[in-house]
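batch_manifest entry 22 of 60
target: Monoacylglycerol lipase ABHD2
source organism: Champsocephalus esox
requested by: lab member K.T.
priority: normal
notes from requester: please return C-alpha cells only, no post-processing; we will run our own comparison against the previous entry in this batch. if the run fails, retry once and flag.
--- input ---
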Amino acid sequence: MTTLEDAEMNTCGPELPAMFDGMKLAAVATVLYIIVRCLNLKSTASPPEVVYQETPLSRYLFKTCPMLTKEYIPPLLWGKSGHLQTALYGKMGRVNTPKPCGVRKFLPMQDGATASFDLFEARADHSTGDDITMVICPGIGNHSEKNYIRTFVDYSQRQGYRCAVLNHLGALPDMELTSPRMFTYGCTWEYAAMVGYIKRALPETLLVVVGFSLGGNIVCKFLGENRSNQDRVACCVTVCQGYSALRAQETFLQWDQCRRLYNFVLADNMKKLILNHRSTLLGLNSSNIGDADLGRLYAATSLMQIDDSIMRKFHGYSSLKEYYEKESCVHHLHKVTVPLLLVNSSDDPLIHQSLLDIPRTLAEKMPNVIFALTQHGGHLGFFEGAVLFPQPLTWMDKVIVEYTNAICHWEKNLPACQRSSNRNSNACPQSTGETLSG
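--- output ---
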C-alpha cells in the first residue's frame, strides 16, 4: 500500500532535478551575460571618428591614408575590451617582438644630468628618396628597450625611417642618474637635447615627431614652446595622451572604468623607479628631495601623491597645481603649426572622456590638426586580429607610418619656397570644420 510520504516523494522527485537544471541554466546565462558585457562583444567594429577641417592637405590625406577612414577591427573575443587591450599591452607590449640594433648616445645636460637616446638607422630607402628621422618619445617610465617601442622602430626602419628614441631620465635599469632629478610629466629638456643632436649631426634630415602617452604631452609641449623647435619638422603624431594633467587629476581618483586601480598600479611602478635611484636623489647636495619626502613616497597610493612629494620638486614647483599647469601641453598645442595627428581611443581606461574635448576643439579650430578617435584600442593597445590571436603589428604602428608617408610625399611635392618658409601653407583661412564618423 502506497503511503502518503511515498506519494509526496514520487510527486516532488522529478521536479527537483528540473529545478536544479533551471538554476544551472540561469547561472550559465548570468556568466555569459557578464562575459558579453565585460568583453563588449555586442559592440561592432567601426572606422575612427575623425575631426578635421576641409583643406587641400586633409583631402589629400583621406585619399592616401585609408586607415583613417576604414574600420579598425580588433580581435573578436577580447579586442573590444579596453581593459584587456590595455592589460595585454602592459603585460607583453607586443607579440613576436623584434630586436632592432641601434647605437646608444649620451648627452650631458647643463644641470649635470645625462640624457640618453638610441639611434636606429633605416633598413631601406624611403619611398620619397629623402632622409627622414623619427624622433620618438615613449610613455611614462619607458625607453627604447620596451617591446612596443621595438616593434614600432623595426617597422619604421623597414619603411625607410631612421629612428631616434629617447630613454626617459632614470628609466633605464642599468643607467645611474648623474643629477638629483628624473623625467617629469612635461619636462622637454632631454627631448630637446636629442632633437638638437639630430639636427646638428644630420643637417639634411627631415624630422617626424612621435609621442606615446606621456611622451605625446612632452613632444607637443616641446613644439609649442618655441617656434624654432618646429624647424625641419614634417609632422607630429601622438597616441593616447591626456593633454592636461590638471584636468585629469580628479578623474584619475575615480573608480569609473577602474581608473583608481590603474592609478594605484602606475603609482607602484613609479615608486619602484624612484626608489631605485634614492641614493642619488638623496646624496647630492643640490637635491630638493629629503628623507621626509621619501617617507611620504613609501605611503603613496596614487600618482598625485608621488608627484606632490617628489616629482614637482625636481623643478622647484611650489604646488601640485602649478606643476600640472606648467607641464601640460594644453597651453602650447595652439602654437603648433606643422601637420598634427592626435589619436585616442574611446575605451582607454586611463583617459577620461572629458579630456578628449581638448583635441576635438583644437581640430575644429586649427586647419593643421586632425583628431582621430577609435572606438576600441585601450591604452596603447590597438591590437588587430581575426578572432583570438593578435597580429604582430598593431593598428597604431601602421597608421602612424601611413600618415607620415603621406605627409612626406605631400612635403616633397610642395614648391621649394613653401617647403622652406611655411610648412603649413596648405592651410586655408576659409576652411570649415568637419567630422567624419563611422
